[in-house]
C-alpha cells in the first residue's frame, strides 16, 4: 500500500503594496533560506496590470494582464514571484495585499 503525501501550505510572510499608475512596483520577497513557493494577491480598490516575466507592465493595459478590483489571483512559482511587476491602471491608487506560502510535506 502506498501513502500519498499532501503538501501543506504554510504562510511565511505578508506584504502590502501601494500601486499607482506612475511607477512599476516589484515584490520584496521574505528573507528565507529558499524563496516562497507561491503567493496569493488581493487587489483591493483599483485595477492593476501584472507581468511575471520581468517585462514592465504599462498603465494603459497594453502590456501585462489586467487584474480588476476587487479581485484575487495567485502566482504559483518562485521564478514568477521573483520577476513579478505591476502598475496601476487609473489615477486611483490600489492597495494590493500579498500573502506568501511555502509548501511542506
Task: Jot down its keywords.
single chain, mainly beta, Jelly Rolls, four-stranded antiparallel β-sheet
Summarize the biggest pleated sheet: 4 strands, antiparallel
Indicate the structural class. Answer: mainly beta
> Looking across the biggest beta sheet, what order are the strands in?
1-8-3-6
Shape label: elongated
Rg, alpha carbons: 15 Å
CATH architectural group = Sandwich
Describe this structure in words.
The protein has a single domain, classed as Jelly Rolls. With 105 residues, the chain is mostly beta strands. Helix content is 6%, strand content 45%.
Concise structural overview:
With 105 residues, the protein is mainly beta. It is 6% helix and 45% strand.
Topology:
Elements: E1 8-19, E2 25-26, E3 38-43, E4 48-51, E5 65-67, E6 71-75, H1 78-83, E7 85-88, E8 94-104
Antiparallel strand pairs: 1-8, 2-7, 3-6, 3-8, 4-5, 4-7
